[in-house]
């Protein structure tokens, strides 16, 4: 199973690197570094494991040779490799349907209780305190992820949403839970021509009160509290839970952080590879559904 997935993903990686320029002074080309990282992410193993030729089938191992662990550590911080990973992500996302209704949510990426990771923080996630990081996602109704951001667990979800909004292209409506029911998010979204819709913090409030509210928030105030609006938002929000379950699928593994994924840069690389795997899995799922 992993062999076939890896072959398909490597074929996509070669498509993504068209037009990409490597540093001629480097012994290994950028795509070899990304392929080695992909092999590690596919098996949920550390990069040092993927840098060992004994852990590769002979027909899948890059013919030009594998980079060492120290080489991987250096090259995964370079702009060229990071740019290629971004091109790879964009290619996998482009193969999935795109709508104008987006969902925004944050999900915890916990670390072990004994972890000494100085970048991890303690914050609220899934109803209780968790130490680790938080993954903020802007996604499509069909499950594809348009943009994402990794922050410490105690980072504010509205602040993260404000950083994500400039990347919300071709979006007419953005829907979030009660954490995003804040006036400034309605204003920032409206500046980009987006109608922000958040589940109300106070569901039984009959009037907005005497405080000044964004007119864009007031425009949906009655609808989100109506029976029709509540049903629609609950149905849409259930889609986010479904996407979270898909991303935590055993073949993807986007849930708690393994012991070898620590510090912010490594967490972001791990998330990038897992989302590439997720979009590949989602494209196959859609193709099977359409064929059936």
Structure overview:
The protein has 292 residues and is an alpha/beta fold. It has 2 domains: 93 residues, no CATH class; 147 residues, Nucleotidyltransferase, domain 5 (2-Layer Sandwich), CATH 3.30.420. It is built from 11 helices and 6 strands. Strands 1, 2, 3, 4, 5 and 6 form a 6-stranded mixed sheet that branches. The longest helix has 28 residues. It starts with a helix and ends with a helix.
How many helices? The count is 11
Work out the radius of gyration: 21 Å
Number of domains: 2
Number of E-state strands: 6
By helix and strand content, what is the structural category? alpha/beta
Element string (H = helix, E = strand): HHHHHEEEEHEHEHHHH
Low-pLDDT residue intervals, each spanning 5 or more residues: none
Q: CATH topology of the largest domain, anyone?
A: Nucleotidyltransferase, domain 5
Mean of pLDDT = 89
How can the largest sheet be summarized? Answer: 6 strands, mixed
What's this entry about, in short?
The protein is α/β, with parallel strands linked by helices and 292 residues long. The protein has helices at residues 2-16, 30-43, 47-50, 69-75, 79-94, 157-164, 183-191, 215-219, 221-225, 227-247, 264-291, and strands at 101-110, 121-125, 128-140, 145-152, 173-176, 195-198. The mean pLDDT is 89.
Write the layout of secondary structure elements.
Elements: H1 2-16, H2 30-43, H3 47-50, H4 69-75, H5 79-94, E1 101-110, E2 121-125, E3 128-140, E4 145-152, H6 157-164, E5 173-176, H7 183-191, E6 195-198, H8 215-219, H9 221-225, H10 227-247, H11 264-291
Helix pairs in contact: 1-2, 1-5, 2-5, 2-11, 5-11
């Amino acid at each position: 199973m992993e062999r076939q997935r890896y072959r398909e993903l490597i074929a996509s990686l070669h498509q993504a690197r068209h037009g990409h320029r490597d540093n001629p002074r480097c012994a290994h080309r950028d795509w070899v570094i990304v392929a080695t990282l992909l092999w590690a992410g596919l098996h949920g193993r550390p990069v040092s494991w993927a840098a060992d030729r004994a852990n590769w089938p002979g027909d899948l191992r890059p013919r030009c040779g594998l980079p060492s662990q120290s080489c991987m550590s250096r090259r995964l911080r370079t702009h060229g490799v990071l740019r290629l990973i971004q091109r790879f992500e964009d290619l996998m996302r482009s193969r999935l349907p795109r709508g104008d209704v987006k969902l925004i949510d944050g999900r915890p990426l916990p670390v072990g209780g004994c972890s000494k990771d100085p970048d991890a923080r303690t914050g609220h996630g899934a109803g209780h305190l968790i130490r680790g990081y938080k993954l903020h996602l802007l996604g499509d109704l069909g499950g594809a992820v348009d943009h994402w951001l990794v922050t410490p667990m105690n980072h504010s979800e509205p602040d993260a949403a404000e950083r994500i909004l400039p990347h919300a292209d071709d979006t007419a409506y953005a829907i979030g839970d009660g954490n995003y029911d804040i006036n400034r998010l309605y204003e920032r979204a409206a500046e980009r021509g987006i109608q922000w819709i958040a589940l109300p913090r106070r569901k039984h409030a009959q009037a907005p009160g005497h405080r000044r509210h964004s007119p864009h928030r007031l425009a949906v105030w009655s609808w989100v509290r109506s029976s029709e609006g509540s049903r629609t938002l609950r149905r849409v929000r259930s889609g986010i839970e479904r996407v979270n379950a898909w991303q935590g699928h055993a073949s993807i593994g986007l849930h708690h952080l393994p012991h070898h994924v620590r510090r912010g840069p490594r967490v972001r690389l791990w998330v990038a590879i897992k989302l590439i795997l997720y979009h590949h899995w989602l494209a196959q799922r859609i193709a099977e559904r359409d064929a059936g």
